[in-house]
Design a protein that fits this description.
The complex is a heterodimer. By secondary structure, chain A is an alpha/beta fold. In chain A, about 35% of the residues lie in helices and about 25% in strands. In chain A, strands 6-9-10-3-11-12 form a six-stranded mixed sheet, sandwiched between helices. A six-stranded mixed sheet of chain A has the order 16-17-18-15-19-20, with helices on both faces. Chain A has a four-stranded antiparallel sheet with strand order 2-1-4-5, with no helix packed on it. In chain A, α4 crosses α5, α13 crosses α14 and α14 runs parallel beside α15. The N and C termini of chain A lie far apart (about 50 Å). Chain B is mainly alpha-helical. Helix content of chain B is about 75%, strand content about 5%. Chain B has 13 helices and two strands; from the N terminus they run ααααααββααααααα. Chain B has a two-stranded antiparallel sheet with strand order 1-2. The chains are: A alpha/beta, B mainly alpha.
């Protein structure tokens, strides 16, 4: 008997359907993957389960009894726990406070907050994930992105006296985690499954899903396209189901070999024209800081032909409330205006439309606001902006994070094309298969510095991971 | 669709209702060219300050010191008149004081990194204090103020049957200048980018610090200009006469922001905000309604407009 069953879930936002009659069942004791490109309707479905969005139509059953989820508290009472995609932590509060956020604090004499117990509860939740390096009293604002995500995840594992957890819904939980942290999370999820509880797991990382999950439901354009056991399906079939077309290869091959001519040298590395230099390392090993050092002062960098695609497109990459074309021309406004003073909107729109076509941007037009685009298309806008000045060096920080499969492939193809034309690329990514497949050489970072630079060809994921851990391996040996 | 319309045009509809109400209650005096020229003249100082305020608010910043800067510039000009300097020199120095004051605000915000609210709260009291120190706390009026200076506010340009006041013309020119600056130049575009996402703008090569300095300087100059207009209108200067401008200017920009889809300040929307405040003032005065009641009404209208635009926004989400 399924633990949870959803039937005929429909939801439209101002007339645009996000879900068109989706069915989904999650059995007790299974890890169920919910897959689909950005905009397929996964987030909406999860928000309906969480009681945050009210569906236009839906029949929801838990333990075969019809239920109505009218708010987050109801969801909590029904045994549902959520890790949403956004890193919604409160930086000014401590780790423990963030973990217990939204639930009653333990009290002394019914009034004063019992900080010692609060910290103990939080420590217990962290230890569930095998996390010992995060102090519950530390302010979350001082943690790395990966650690913040761990804090968010541990909050779902708080022991509850009231309503025991039956289903954990995780939306892209590993986006900011290192391999080791992800593995620890997976172990906990398997343990949950062993206890007869369920997990609804949303991820773009197909390898991860294939390894972890029992069954999958694939959403496309607001419909459940297929649902079945993952052991009966191949990686490529799953990709084809998600994007609705066949992808022969996840990573396109290089079109030309890199040249010997150095495009950039400094900060302990050199990149050649036409080369992709990968940057690998554990989260917080200093990848972003290194890219920022190479980039230097932004105004000068752009004029010297160095372009930058920052890690977080919403907070660093885009002015989301402004139109697409204004975002694309922002670093190039001097050249795309009259004398650097007067705006020339027609010229700008033409410029943006051309670049948009090059990156295969799908939008209503250059005047559409960036906020209205899906994650993959937003990232394409950031790319179009970076490529606008035909840079000689392109710096990429997690360029495919939270980007759907189709857009990912477009981005890789674009990089191949640009490097064939002589552009040099530095690609920092925590997605090891991506770094391995796309890079010519890989700089491995440890503790804020480049530890070694290796050739990517012939390097296995395991040996790259060992290089990232460097010290631990040396100690073991 | 209705929600969208209401959000976009709610404030304009409200303005139309206010106009209709006064027109109905004051059929003989309200909708007359004379009354409107009077309104625009009364509003010219506020318009100039609000236009300057719009520039910094586009970046998401504030300038609370505009009122005391207006007082200070009037005082500086008046003291120079007393010392026998010609009108052009006194006006020039007063505007220069505005520039320096704005530049100082900008430096505190962009170079030192103090929150605009705090930085300009501090300079609000500094400039106010300076106005008292320079004037010795006295009102400067009478024969010390050159006729040429006082006449400027009283004169106008005759266009057919009416004479358009100089003050109105100055306000219109300032609005036109700010419109061109914000809507037609790369400078304005970059300010909007800073207001939309400062970090993204900085990483895109926008010289954030320099633009903030320039923007605050322009706001300072506009405040000083408004102070001069005020001094000319009343042919005197006292160290507190600009103090009412700041809150009204911010209110006008906020009213204007309710008209933009993304809640961004726009200069023409600010002008509508100024007109709403001015028309209310004018109409309620003509209806002999107590000025304290007027204050309550103005506050309520701001709350209603901003609340309506945020409620309709959350409905859509």
């Amino acid at each position: 008997m399924p633990f949870l069953s959803l039937a005929n879930v429909a939801k439209s936002f101002s007339g645009v359907p996000a879900l068109r009659g989706v069915d989904l069942t999650v059995a007790s004791g299974e890890i169920h993957a919910l897959m689909g490109e950005n905009g397929a309707g996964k987030s909406t479905l999860i928000k309906i389960l969480a009681g945050v969005v009210v569906p236009d139509a839906a029949t929801i059953r838990i333990d075969d009894r019809p239920v109505v989820i009218d708010g987050p508290l109801t969801a909590q009472r029904l045994g549902l726990r959520f890790i949403h995609q956004e890193l919604n932590v409160v930086p000014a509060l401590s780790v423990a406070e963030n973990i217990v956020l939204g639930r009653p604090y333990p009290r002394q004499f019914g009034v004063l907050i019992d900080w010692r117990r609060l910290n103990a509860i939080a420590r217990e939740a962290l230890e569930r994930l095998g996390i010992t390096h995060i102090d519950p009293r530390e302010k979350v604002g001082r943690l790395t992105t990966g650690d913040r995500m761990l804090v968010r995840i541990s909050s779902a594992f708080l022991s509850d006296s009231g309503a025991p957890a039956r289903l954990y819904v995780m939306d892209e939980p590993t986006a900011a985690l290192t391999r080791e942290e992800s593995e620890r999370l997976f172990a906990v999820l398997r343990e949950i499954r062993g206890q007869g509880n369920s997990v609804l797991y949303v991820s773009h990382r197909i390898d991860e899903v294939m390894a972890l999950c029992d069954r999958a439901t694939v959403l496309r354009d607001g419909r459940a396209i297929d649902s079945g056991r993952l052991s009966d399906i191949t990686h490529d079939d799953l990709v084809a189901l998600m994007i609705g077309r066949k992808v022969s290869e996840a990573y396109p091959r290089p079109m030309a070999a890199p040249s010997d001519e150095v495009a950039y040298e400094g900060h302990g590395l050199a990149v050649h024209r036409g080369e992709i230099l990968g940057i690998a390392g554990l989260s917080g090993a200093g990848q972003t800081a290194l890219l920022r050092r190479i980039f230097g002062r932004p105004a000068q960098a752009w004029s010297r032909g160095i372009a930058y695609v920052p890690k977080d497109r919403r907070s660093e990459g885009l002015v989301t409330i402004r139109p697409i074309y204004e975002n694309i021309t922002l670093p190039h406004l001097h050249d795309q205006s009259l004398g650097g003073i007067w705006l020339a909107p027609n010229r700008e729109q033409l410029f943006a439309a051309t670049l948009g076509r090059n990156v295969r941007l799908s939008a209503k037009g250059p005047g559409q606001r960036a906020i209205e685009l899906s994650g993959g298309n937003q990232q394409k806008v950031v790319f179009a902006k970076a490529l606008g000045g035909s840079p000689r060096l392109l710096l990429l920080d997690e360029p495919t994070r939270g980007v759907d499969v189709g857009a990912k492939f477009d981005i890789y193809a674009l990089l191949r094309e640009m490097t064939a034309n002589g552009m040099a690329v530095i690609l920092a990514s925590s997605d090891l298969p991506e770094v391995l497949a796309m890079s010519d050489r890989i700089a491995v970072m440890r503790e804020g510095a480049i530890a070694t630079i290796v050739t990517a060809a012939g390097l296995s994921e395991e040996s790259l991971l060992n290089l990232c851990y460097g010290r631990a391996v040396a100690r073991a040996a | 669709m209705l929600v969208r319309l209401l959000r976009r045009y709610g404030t304009l509809i409200g303005f139309a209702l206010i106009l209709a109400f006064f027109w109905a209650r004051l059929p003989d005096t309200f909708m007359t060219p004379r009354n409107w020229l009077n309104i625009t003249q009364q509003l010219s100082m506020l318009t100039v300050v609000a236009a300057g305020m719009t520039i910094v608010m586009v970046m998401g910043d504030f300038d609370l010191s505009v009122g005391s800067m207006a007082s200070l510039s009037g005082i500086v000009a008046a003291m120079l008149f007393v010392a026998g300097y010609p009108v052009w020199a006194a006006v020039g120095v007063a505007l220069l004081v505005g520039l320096m004051g704005g530049l100082f605000n900008g430096a505190m915000v962009s170079l030192v990194g103090i929150l605009p609210f705090v930085a300009t709260l501090a300079t609000l009291t500094m400039y106010s204090g300076a106005a008292f120190v320079v004037s010795g706390g006295k009102t400067i009026s009478g024969r010390a103020i050159p006729e040429q200076f006082g006449n400027f506010a009283r004169d106008g340009i005759v266009l057919g049957p009416v004479s358009v006041p100089n003050l109105t013309i100055v306000a219109v020119l300032v609005v036109a200048f700010v419109w061109v600056l914000l809507e037609q130049t790369t400078f304005g575009r970059r300010l909007y980018a800073i207001g939309g996402n400062l970090e993204a703008a900085y990483l895109s090569g926008v010289p954030v610090r320099r633009l903030k300095l320039v923007a605050f300087s322009l706001t300072g100059i506009s405040a000083a200009g408004a102070g001069l207009l005020y001094a000319s209108r009343v042919a005197s200067a006292n160290p507190t006469q600009g103090s009412g401008l700041m809150l009204n200017a911010i209110a006008a920009v906020f009213l204007g922001m309710t008209m933009s889809e993304q809640g961004e300040p726009r200069i023409l929307a600010t002008v509508v905000g100024v007109l709403i405040l001015g028309v209310l003032d004018n109409g309620l005065t003509q209806l002999s309604i107590d000025s304290y009641i007027r204050q309550i009404l103005v506050g309520a209208i701001i709350v209603v407009a901003v609340a309506a635009s945020s409620i309709t926004r959350s409905v859509r989400r």
